[in-house]
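TL;DR need structure tokens for one chain.
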Amino acid sequence: MRYRYGLLGFLSLIGVVGLIIEEPAFYPFFAFVLFFEYFFIKPDEMFLENMRKAASWAFYVSLLVTTAGACCLALFGQTAEHALRQGIGWGFACSLIVFSCTATYFEWKDSTGASND
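>> reply
TL;DR here they are.
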């Protein structure tokens, strides 16, 4: 599947659900509509490498934030269930933000001809 990165745009449907049920906490997912542009970009080696690097950064941030958040909340007296749920939520949110920002950054550096090292 050549254009699979465009599928990230479907996360914006969570924002639509937020409109339907009138839940403002879901509105930030509308930001993912920007990923639909990847359906129209022919992926080359540099694009794929940039996506891999962005995903790698996001994965490590997710692990760090999930672990730190769950441990801190558990140590400060929250129930294990609440601490894990909050830690996973924070990790997911941070990983999406980091992926989006780093993918944009790498794409910008590629378009200006700068090195991504």
